[in-house]
Amino acid sequence: MHAQLTHTETMIARFAGVLYLIIIIFGITSEVALRGPLVNFADAGGTAEAILGAINAFRLSIAADLVMAIADAGLAILLFVLLRSAAPVLALSAMVFRLIQSVMIGMNLMNMQGALLLVTAGQDLSGLAPGQSDAIALFLLNMHAHGYDLGLVFFGINSLMTGVLIWRSGLVHRSLGIGLGLAGMIYLTGSALRFMAPEAYDVFAPAYGITVLAETAFCLALLLKGVMPRRQVQPA
Q: Of the candidates 148, 9, 155, 132, which has an alpha carbon nearest to the alpha carbon of residue 79?
């Protein structure tokens, strides 16, 4: 049995799609275009020089990640509203895990801010030997990278739950639920490699392209809601 979304549900879905689009654009821009080119984990001094030479880009990457975290928190709530009829407890659990990830992204930005303070001498560095501040700054950036992957553990679990909810709810095509479930497995595998087998992480990294495709497809499906019907299901 199928029924059109209500006007309210349609607006919520589309707003969720907008938030998802913000997350994708700001997240990729921050990592690939703004921060990524400046950081070389094998060269503390070179990284410090690169950040000093593009200080505004580095600050924008912090701001972009903050916007992403805020949008992610909002999206967690909206998806709960849209999917709770399929399985209330599972939808609530998915929201909680996504919110945990959002908080971790926000708190993890303190590592980037700490690196920035060291590189720009934003505090008294007289107690450090030459080059030590750059080394500590790079360590903080490395901690940021590890903290991001730790957050992806919670997001990976959220993705698995969301995939099941999509399959059960009929909110969007079931294939998108499969895609998000696969994305969740990739996030969990990548995070495990980051901590347990870092030498294999770079080899596995291209698999994250699948997660981008799956999440972008889900984002577009949300933006286009109101055109396709949703299957009515009984709450679990």
A: 9
**Beta strand 230-231 with 2-3: parallel, antiparallel or unpaired?**
antiparallel
Q: For the chain, how long is the longest CA-to-CA vector?
A: 71
Q: Which of 136-175 are b and which e, b meaning 16 or more Cβ less than 10 Å from the residue's Cβ?
A: bbbbbbebbbbbbbbbbbbbbbbbbbbbbbbbbbbbbeee
User: Around Cβ 197, how many Cβ atoms within 10 Å?
Assistant: 11
Three-state secondary-structure class, residue 3: strand
Tracing tokens 């399929």 back to the chain, one arrives at 86
**Please, are residues 154 and 96 in contact by the beta-carbon 8 Å criterion?**
no
Partner residues linked to 74 by β-bridges: none
> What are the strands, taking DSSP E only, across the chain?
2-3, 230-231
SS3 content of the chain, % helix, strand, coil (to 5): 80, 0, 20
pTM value is 0.88
- pLDDT tens digits for range 4-60: 668 888 899 999 999 999 999 999 999 999 999 999 999 999 999 999 999 999 999
Residue 228 in contact with residue 14, Cβ under 8 Å? no
Q: Is residue 47 a contact partner of residue 39, using CB atoms and an 8 Å limit?
A: yes
Q: Which neighbouring-strand residues pair with 230?
A: 3
Contact indicator for 214, 176 with CB cutoff of 8 Å: yes
- Quick one: tokens of 58? 């580095």
Q: Is 51 helix (H, G, I), strand (E, B) or coil?
A: helix
Query: Would you state the structure tokens that stand for residue 79, as one six-digit string?
Result: 């998806």
149 token code pair: 């992957």
